[in-house]
Structure prediction request, 478 residues.
Amino acid sequence: MKYISTRGSFTNTAHKQTFSQVLLSGLAEDGGLMLPETLPKITEAELTAWRTLPYHALAFNVIAKFVDNTDLPHADLAVMTKAAYTKEVFNTDEITPLTSLQALQPGLMLQHLSNGPTLAFKDMAMQLLGRLFEYELARQNKTLNILGATSGDTGSAAEYAMRGRKGISVFMLSPAGRMSAFQRAQMYSLQDANIHNIAVVGVFDDCQDIVKAVSNDLEFKRKHNIGTVNSINWGRIVAQVVYYVRGYLSATTSNSQKVSFAVPSGNFGNILAGHIAREMGVPIDTLILATNENNVLAEFFQTGVYRPRKSAETFETSSPSMDISKASNFERFVFHLLGCDAERIAALWKEVDRGGSFDLSNTPEFKSVRERFGFVAGTSTHANRLATIRETFQRTNVLIDTHTADAVYVGRAHIKQEIPIIALETALPIKFAATVEEAVGFEPPMTDAQKAMMKLPQQVTTMGLDVNRVKAMIAASL
Ligand SMILES: *Cc1c(COP(=O)(O)O)cnc(C)c1O
Prediction:
């Protein structure tokens, strides 16, 4: 299994990249994203045999298709998937159980992806990624300083995955006072020596600017092995493919049946994994993409125009983990849409990187996007979100969070007879308690463990927009 860049590098050379190389790297040097040269397939016989596997074994079988045994020994991969996907970490033996929402909408189900340590779906990939990173760094005799900016879910998932891991430190910037009390408690109560929380007096974009300033100092970056765990990381995408396979197998009894997925997605990370599962041969009918008011992606699938927004045009919504202006993983899908034509991708993203847009509406490829790739899309607003949370609770007694509500709302608009829809639950309601309360009139109840977490001492360094101070903290750490 060799990897190439969406913009052409590594394509016609002897030094194609391997999984373990791609795992620790970000963008390719040509600015593109890394993808397998050809996607592996899942056979009919495999699908049948996998029906009875526990989640960790399914994860091993799916991910092993993307990894050469000579690159990363499969026996070691099996140890890591087994350690990552346990009841201790995800609270259930099934890891991603299904719940019927029949009473709300016949044929609609929920797949729970948010039973991990930070109560959001990013744990699904990050819990494995922490182990893969520790393993690879030890093998390559390297250390890594993970530097990131977060407005919530990504930062906490990264910290819980990396805490206590050898050779890894995490420096996570968050906007002071702008996350919910629950999110603050989750991150700042970690006391591990390798986790560093930095609250910046400013907004999320200020945090992002500091990360960029540190990363643009190439000498500092090299000297201190600065890296990221953002959503373009290929390890995260392959780990996410697994829950689509599991969702399909759990919802069906025979491989002749099809299902559709309704997916809340902002950076195109969540739904890209669904696209890959479908291309590998999982019988997925439709991939229903749900956005919030930041509808860059829905606009593309409805019109063929991809027009990233400026930060100032990005709304703050009540499903904040999808408040994006540019979908970083989208380039990987368009690469497949355009028949793996790296030259065309490079030309299109030259426009995007200059702040422009592109229009594929008159191309045969875009006209085939629904038929060939199964994509449809829709947008959900604050009012839709509130009504969906309320109606779901009234009819099924299931309380959902705001992002999941976007998926349920847009999913319902695309229901077809005979084909069930699995809506992906991407966070628990307690993480977005204020909006859930606005919808149903009460705060989502906390478990005893969550109440105890709220009372733990918190550890965070608060500062202004001080790039040098962040650099000094990193320099002092390893
Ligand atoms: C990150 C996130 C999403 C969207 O994931 P993408 O990778 O942007 O597709 C959806 N819901 C929640 C709760 C998230 O944290």
